[in-house]
Amino acid sequence: MPLPPICTTFEPYFLLSQDRLTDIVSHFRKELEEGLESYGKDVAMVPSFVTGVPDGTEEGTFLALDLGGTNLRVCEVRLFGQHKFEIKQQKYKVSDELKEGQAKVLFDYIADSVDAFLTDIGSDISSNEPMHLGFTFSFPVEQTAIDAGKLLTWTKGFNAKNAIGNDVVKLLQDAFDRKHIHVRCSALVNDTVGTLLSRSYQSGPALIGAIFGTGTNGAYIDKTRTVKKLGEDKIAEAEAGGEHAGQFMVVNTEWGAFDNGRHCLPVSIFDNKLDRESINPRKQAFEKMVSGMYLGEITRNILLHLIDASALFNGYSSKILNTHYGFDTAFVSGVEGAKSPEEVKKLITSQLGVEAKHIQEADIEIVQWATKIVSDRACKLAATAIAAVVLHTGNDKVPEGEEDKGVDVGIDGSVAEFLPRFSERVSEALAEILGEDGSKRIRMGLAKDGSGVGAALTALQAKKALDKRSEANSQFIPGKKGPSHQAR
Ligand code: GLC
């Protein structure tokens, strides 16, 4: 059945040609590079002070905290080595009042949840030492050490007051200390960094960890020298084996803010409406076209536009359709995964609340078409981000004289997991951008639990650095036996 003519007025914003994709990728690379050169750029390119990826042999038990997805998650992670781990976890709801209230109240709630977790589930970590906790805080943070970083801005519906500009590790540690909870926050981790580490721990070294969930973002490994904004002294210190030893640095791109200046993204009237009505207008432009928090809302805006033009459901709407964020991306995934028009019709009545008598056969096709253009665009844009990082790091080709090991990308998040054929669609778009040979080298795989396992792995890295430092310090305490005394 032909689509109503009104659809053709905005469809082009959702169909991205190969040329358009190539153009977006070149802008992307430019913004990645700008973020590495100086602070304060949209694509923040945050050095994580994580200097390598694990090899699967790591062992130990750690606490992990995950804030930034749908729920607050507290976990106890046991790393057994041999790429194996076990997680005990508990989820806690973060209400809108907490998300938008005072930061102190939010952090007190987080500390209370850790306390409740330790009491409810019990922890096997028994020692006088405080428990080491990795904090997965999935918001843009300007990190200054593995355990310190200032919040740059909130995203994904959070807007707690008196947090921006503050060190989030300190906010959390102060809350633990106020409540006498014997936990030390020793590592601050973005979920993408966690995903990268977790994927590497489980299935061998990866280049990129990417989240396509409530928000979207990616982290990757770069040469420390490339992170020019760190300054020559810090780079030299790192390379010489100083406190943050290593030639490599995991960089959290914060690619959700790509093209906030709107130079190349295909911004339709529906994207503009979504942005204008959001709590962070003119921010996270890329994220607002790709991630789970928004795909349902863009679809809602399209359907309402068609209803207003009497081109859908006989011009009848519903309470859900009239409500801001009335339905989420699960509806889009549901329609895309439906096996028959009847199934789509059921979803329209049950999840959108439209009365069956207003739904014609053509309406079902229109709804299917709307979810498809929204999700196809999201998949293609997801591919531009991956391609930009692959090209930036020179991984589109096999390095000369080396065996082709391919490029591994760990992905996580509700869109990656539940949007039908997500990986295949991203791979198809990668083939358009990088060519068949380039795209074939890229392996994408779900790295579930990145925010838990990754936080534990980072806490382990931080603990090792801490132990090394205190060992080094102890060498200089008169009368105390340190390795240097033993060597003599
Ligand atoms: C948002 C956050 C980012 C996070 C991503 C995925 O883009 O700013 O830090 O990694 O969501 O959760």
TrEMBL record:
GO cellular component: cytosol; mitochondrion
Region span, Disordered: 467-488
Keywords: ATP-binding, Glycolysis, Kinase, Nucleotide-binding, Transferase
Annotated pathway: Carbohydrate metabolism; hexose metabolism; Carbohydrate degradation; glycolysis; D-glyceraldehyde 3-phosphate and glycerone phosphate from D-glucose: step 1/4
InterPro entries linked to this entry: ATPase_NBD, Hexokinase, Hexokinase_BS, Hexokinase_C, Hexokinase_N
Coiled-coil regions listed: none
Top-level division of the source organism's lineage: Eukaryota
Alphabetical GO biological process terms: glucose metabolic process; glycolytic process; intracellular glucose homeostasis
Entry GO MF terms: ATP binding; D-glucose binding; fructokinase activity; glucokinase activity
Sequence ranges assigned to domain Hexokinase C-terminal in this UniProt record: 208-460
Family: Belongs to the hexokinase family.
The protein's name in its UniProt record: Phosphotransferase
Native organism: Kwoniella heveanensis BCC8398
